[in-house]
Amino acid sequence: MAAIEKPKKPVAKAAPKAAPKVATNVAPKVVLKAVPKAKPAVAKPRVKAAGNATPKFKSAKVTPERRRKLVPRPTVHPGALAQARAFPVLESIFTRRSRRFALGAELTGPLGFKSDKEPVPLAFEEEAILVAAATGISGLATEEWPFLDDDGDSTSGDKIGSFTGRTYPSPLANHNVELFWTNDDGVFALPQRDVRPKKHNQLADENAPNELYRQAVKLADKRLLVPRDRPNLFAFNHRIPNAQGTSMFMPITDITRQCISAMLLYFDRPHGYYLVDPHLGGDPLREYVKSGLLDPAHAVDFWEFERWQMVDANGVEQGLMVGNLMHATQAMGLGGHPFNGGKGRVTMGGEQYWHEIGGKGPCGSLGFEMLKIPDDAPLGAGESVPVGLKGVFEAAMPPFQKNMDKAVDSVVDIRWGKKGIFTDKTRAIPWTNRQAIEQMPHPSDEAIAATKTMCNYIWNTYGRFPATIDPMMMTVWYQAQHLDLDFYKKYYPAEVIPDRVRNHMRDWHGMDCDCC
Q1: Cα angle, residue 332 at apex, residues 203 and 508 outer, rounded to 5°
Q2: Is 63 exposed, middle or buried (0-12, 13-18, 19+ CB in 10 A)?
Q3: Could you give the CA distance from residue 235 to residue 230 in angstroms, rounded to a whole number?
Q4: In terms of CB atoms within 10 Å, which of 94, 259, 265, 421 comes out highest?
């Protein structure tokens, strides 16, 4: 497999430097305690993100554990990559464990231990596999839906959001989650939800993860500063996360597209579900009950509706993404673990929002735009919520859409606009019979109008969208690292560490240590 480059930063125009070459043989043994003298490679930008200005970022504070000289990315033996691809999925599931203690790490308490080795970052190829496993486009989805019933009436299958198959499934194929991550080289994102697949199997080629990885957008040149303190992280997460040498993955979910898509599905025939606001006495959809579109027999509290969308888009999708990271980590013999990540408003918004919740000291930011909720709003008055990163990951709402009517139109257009999945004849489709797409039912104009009515009610009444949850959310993070096996040798029986983990540094990187 060819060597790969670091992801590229979105604004500058400098040409990229070549990535370190992949070893064609096992590299000479290197004692991990030795500090390499080579300077770390610096990624040069190539991909330019949309937007008028580069967001301002605050990078990681130089704390004592980060004063070590950065170690260059290791090379990878090609045979190791082939072995990882062939690793049995059931073995990965049945032997899955979180393994947290990295090279260079330190723990206090009953399991007190201080690593005497330098942190070794993931190789480009290792990180590329993790990124592809988490968020890659695997190809065209099959979409074997009954779009019409026996009578030729719509089943509302036209509400699917894409023909895109990803490494994780998604409600209505909306793929609401994008992956952000940070490491010693900087902060990165890989926008994928609007990328079109070209064939059914796009990740089958062994070099596909590397090609995907090259498309990442670099957002900052240094590791993101995430406050490892309360109230951002629980006390037991103050030492392990985001240390030098680790790669920390932070999935972020856009709830807005999911809510709008679900409303279109709920309101249109044959469903006709009826949303109400019993908390404020609002009944914005009454006219659609009178018209016969919506069924009043079982009114649904729209606060509950929003929570269902949060579970689908945020809980389910992020959980599946992190599950893929776990299995990819297992296959490569790396350490890795999921954990309750930092607060979304803090990580996306930065220091101001860290201090607002009682945090002290500096704080980094992913540079997301924040929407201030009106001071007289019934929920969250005066608070600010993240709405997106311009040109990278934008919510379907102002300021990225002129108003909520335009926001609904943008979601409908994904299906039925000029470049929509059902209308664009240049787009690859799942089926060999292109005539099938011509028989697809269209959403009713009345359902679209009802969706706009509900979205405008929420925006005008609550001063935000959605009303009860943030437009952009983050919940679970995942960190991958090279392990210090001396820690496990001291506190655990030998069978806790499988051979693929025990021998990883030797088999993958040609490095040796006295703990292997």
Answers
A1: 110
A2: exposed
A3: 7
A4: 259
Residue 492 clears pLDDT 60, i.e. is over it = yes
Do residues 378 and 462 lie in contact, with contact meaning Cβ atoms separated by under 8 Å? Answer: yes
Average pLDDT, stretch 388-411? Answer: 98
**Confidence category of residue 31, pLDDT binned at 50, 70, 90:** very low
CB contact at 8 A, 54 and 10:
yes
Q: Which two tokens stand for residue 241?
A: 């996360």
Q: Where are the alpha helices (DSSP H) in 268-316?
A: 286-290, 302-310
pTM above 0.70, yes or no: yes
Q: Who's near 173: CB < 8 A, 6+ residues apart?
A: 141, 143, 160, 161, 162, 163, 164
Can you say whether residue 152 is alpha, beta or left, with left for phi > 0 and alpha for psi between -120 and 50 degrees? left
SS3 435: helix
Identify whether the C-beta of residue 369 lies closer than 8 Å to the C-beta of residue 388.
yes
Sequence-distant (≥ 6) Cβ neighbours of residue 493 within 8 angstroms: none
| Each residue's pLDDT tens digit, 258-316 | 999 999 999 999 999 999 999 999 999 999 999 999 999 989 999 999 999 999 999 99
Q: What is the DSSP code (8-state) at residue 102?
A: B
Query: How far is it, in rounded angstroms, from Cα 307 to Cα 309?
Result: 5
Which H or E run includes 403? Answer: none
The string of pLDDT tens digits covering residues 427-452 is 899 999 888 888 888 999 999 999 99
Distance CA 402, CA 44 (A): 35
Beta-strand ranges (E) seen in 240-298 are 247-254, 274-276
Please give the full DSSP string across 315-339, using - where no structure is assigned: IIHHHHHHHHHHHHHHHHT-EEEEE
Instruction: Report the distance separating Cα 290 and Cα 260, nearest Å.
Output: 22
Do 295 and 446 touch, CB atoms closer than 8 A? no
Q: Which of 227, 135, 127 is nearest to 482 (CA)?
A: 127
3-state secondary structure of 495: helix
Cβ atoms within 10 Å of 127's Cβ, excluding its own? 25
Helix (H, G, I), strand (E, B) or coil at 213: helix
Query: Residue 448: how many CB atoms within 10 A of its CB?
Result: 21
User: Cα–Cα distance between 216 and 221 in angstroms, integer?
Assistant: 13
Span 55-105, pLDDT tens digits: 333 333 333 333 456 678 999 998 999 999 999 999 999 999 999 999 999
Mean pLDDT of the chain: 86
Answer yes or no: is pLDDT of 230 > 70.
yes
Q: Note the Cα 284 to chain centre separation in Å.
A: 34
CA-angle at 465, arms to 268 and 416, nearest 5°: 40
Q: How far is the C-alpha of 167 from the C-alpha of 193, rounded, in Å?
A: 12
Which residue is it, tokens 């089943």? 155
Q: How far apart are the first and last CA of the chain?
A: 26
Kindly tell me if the per-residue pLDDT of 133 is higher than 70.
yes
Contacts of 11 (CB under 8 A, 6+ apart): 45, 48, 49, 54
